[in-house]
Amino acid sequence: MGRGSTDAVLDRKAARSHKAPKKPPASEYDALDTSLGATGWNAAEFLKYFKKSEHLPENQPTGDAAYPLTPDPALYGSGPIPNTVPVHMPAIAAHYYKACTALGLHFNPFGGNGNNGGVWPALAAVDPAHVTRVSADVAYLAPMRGASNLTVLTEARAARILFEGNTATGVQFHEQDGAAVRMVHAKKEVVLCAGIGDREYIPEGVPQVVNLPGVGSNLHAAVAVRKLEEYKAHGTGPLSTASLFYSYLPLKAFMDADKIMEIRRMADEATAESIGIASAQALELLKKWLHDDEIQPRIIMGPMHLPMLPGGDFVLGKHYFFFSIILVHPFSHGAAHYSPTGAHGLEVSLNLLSNPIDKQILTAGVQFVRKIVTQDALAKEAGARAVAPGPAVLDAQAAEAWVQQALATAFHPLGTAAMLPRAEGGVVDPQLKVYETENLRVHLWFVEDCHEVDASVIPVQLSCHPMGTIYAIAEKAADMMKASSTQ
């Protein structure tokens, strides 16, 4: 993999994220199969590979006695990634739950079973015996270190794929930035993590094997806006757990009916061309989820300080907690294409908030979070006060201004090598093979400017943290490659 501008870690997503794998409603996985042409990628199949990638440690505590967690053992297997109940529940959590339930939200005792609506704490991909993160490196690579058939090259950047006809025969790469070009040859398959498909972006003199304009397009970034509050804290042990708490909401939980009707009207008038998405089927799915009252934003609360937020009166020694409002089904889309003037030859255009639907949902989300903070359970019992943005009244105009000022991504880009029909802008088929190639598959794509690994084959954002879905895709891809190798 290439070296990022912030760090260089194998499997950056899992190494940076301590959250456990999560699942959207089964209907979202099923839609990949029935609506988007990804045959065989449905809820039952994903559950099979979730079980292969994760397990539920035995004899776990249930968390806070007033808000116990009850994961369903039937949804887990014997995979290497643990789903651990937090061993420490910060005092602010109970106040947060009370504030949310006062506004009509319900506590969900297990949000990891595909029913993610309501308010719930995150399970963690943490080894409960040692209280350490379990990344893909720890779970999958470490046990194989020293294997005679495994070589890992870090700080290596691919230059081109070698082809004979439509068969990939190897990869040309730079072992270090600026180093001499080297080659490695493939006997069976090449798994791709970058590429150029649209003839428009291919440098002059470079031959093209397949013209796939969908490569690099359809970039979905989970858009986030963050707020910071101060509170009076008591308790110990915050580093022993994920300490993140979720609220997954349909629009009706925080927007009035007239505003929802306006947003749905805007969605109905949208075309694939107007929002920059190649797949008309994917757009229809986004519209359906909007009309069916599916989850739209997720709100994360975490008891920690975010010093990167603009403004705010931060005082050393005070206790802070933040909110992050994240769009799970954004209508804005971008692209990541080759550019000779871009960093490492890549130009990323996220086009955040290019669609007004996203801006309106985030604006209403910011106002709803302010309402949560002003509930007695937080404002009086926990002594919470708004810091960034400050305590002034947040009308729609002020909330929209904060959205523009504090906008960021949630570091979950995907879609740039989408598993869609080719006519819909797809890049790979349901076997994860690039169209018109014999042995070239795609799994993960490294997007430098997003500082993240992009699950590029997933065609749309799902209402969950993507880490577990990526593990499941990897497990299924491994089975596919093993099956092909025996044919």
Total helix count? 12
Radius of gyration: 23 Å
Tell me the CATH superfamily of the domain at 69-74 and 85-134 and 218-409. Glucose Oxidase, domain 3
The beta-strand count equals 20
Poorly predicted ranges (pLDDT <50, ≥5 residues)? 1-9, 12-16, 445-453
Q: What is the level 1 CATH name of the domain at 69-74 and 85-134 and 218-409? A: Alpha Beta
Largest sheet, in brief, is: 7 strands, antiparallel
As a percent range, the share of helical residues equals 25-40%
Shape: globular
Distance between the termini: 29 Å
Q: What is the third-level CATH name, the topology of the domain at 69-74 and 85-134 and 218-409?
A: Glucose Oxidase, domain 3
Cofactor: FAD
Domain Glucose-methanol-choline oxidoreductase C-terminal: 330-474
Domain Glucose-methanol-choline oxidoreductase N-terminal: 23-196
Family: Belongs to the GMC oxidoreductase family.
Can you offer a commentary on this structure?
25% of the residues lie in helices and 19% in strands. It has 487 residues and is of the alpha+beta class. The chain has a domain at 69-74 and 85-134 and 218-409: Glucose Oxidase, domain 3, CATH 3.30.560.10. Strand 4 (126-127) and strand 5 (132-133) form a beta hairpin. The radius of gyration is 23 Å and the shape is globular. Mean pLDDT is 84; it is low at 1-9, 12-16 and 445-453.
